Fold this sequence. Notes:
469 residues; alpha+beta; Uridine Diphospho-n-acetylenolpyruvylglucosamine Reductase, domain 2; Uridine Diphospho-n-acetylenolpyruvylglucosamine Reductase, domain 3; Alpha-Beta Plaits; 3 domains; seven-stranded antiparallel β-sheet; five-stranded antiparallel β-sheet; globular
Amino acid sequence: MKNSDSFLKQIKAFVGENCLTVEPSELSAYSHDEFATDEYNTLPLAVVKPTREEQVSEVLKACSEWSIPVTARGGGTGLSAGCVPSKRGIVLSLEKLNKKIEVDEENLCITVEAGVTLKQLYDVAEEAGLFFPPHPGDESATVGGMIATNAGGARAVKYGTIKQFVRGLKVALADGEIISLGGKILKSSTGYHLLDLMIGSEGTLGVVTEITLSLLPPPGTIETLVVPFATVEEAIDSVSVLFKIGVIPFAVEFIEHPVLAFVERLLNKSWPTKEGAASLLIMLDGPGKEEVLATAEKIGEALEGYGALDVLLAEHKERQEEILSLRSMIYEALRPGTGELFDICVPRSEISGHVRFIHRLEKESGVPLPTYGHAADGNVHTHSMKVGLVESGMGEPIPDWFEKHRKIRESIYDDIVKRGGVISGEHGIGLVKRDFLLKNIGGRNVELMKALKKAFDPKGILNPGILFL
């Protein structure tokens, strides 16, 4: 780009020499997210790491004046290339905007800068005797990044996604102006709810710099059940009984046992049962252990009528943590051979039908498609494996994987649309899924989204290429 030296000199004056880099190794590190792929790896012109909100404002103002693309980035833990540049511009990393963490115990909320990690948030809330329910998985994710994708996680069935906890935002617009949306208030019927519009917008409408989130009193106890079934379809179909008997679980996961074998080897830990082909992992929370255990017994009795082979209770905290670690490490165990990770969401009643469809697709294509997910909220994760899966681990590369995968992807998204679902439940669209957004939500919806984008970002400098071309 012409005059890039002049532009970078101006940016350096705003943030300081230590907060701007053009080193090739660092540029490369910021050209991908957690799920690195050669398909999306444009090197940025520079990586800028502001430490104050005013610096974010000045950087955006300069980028607007120079018409330089800006890709906002948090912890880089995403899986859809949502923080990956598609055009040569700057990566605006908010990782150093992480100093402010203020708990307001009277108003049951916490205000943090966008670069604060989920782990930091949890620790500070816990120190104050309070609780932040959303848990998307990776605690190194930043709160700003979670806002960008409307992050969810397994607890969404009871507590919702992060959207349900956002009270206020401060947002830097494309021209550098900082606006405040919401605050510590719990209710507002005051004009358009622009705050909700920012959540899940993946950095295309503005750069979130500060967030105020609701906190809750912590549950008195959390208990974990493992319930094996003869088939994964039986496991998934049984989830409806929990709601029929009046139980809203803390979390419910379905896991096929062959998938767990890889994690057991990785962690040298064992799942509580080898019975059946799949298990439900059910978590319950409540004010006291006695009450929660009574609910667990009620669930056990109900599930016996739906094909449960056993109902196992994690009897102590260490065993509970071991079980949860096995579930949480599935992605890590499969990642070396994964070509793409799907993140679809369907109505709860459609999960087992979709999983049956995945099984048929696996047999027809010859591509392993290990599948697991959040059984109570319809969010299903399927890995399209570039290699075979054998008893000892990863096998040989799948012949013609890319061509087979393209057909698999089309088929999965066609199935999702038929079932009234969406192509992303919690990971976001990013660059990876943008070509399928139109198929999923329809042309008029995309037109309206583009019109909103134009209104907030007339020059199109914010995360260009994300969501749509």
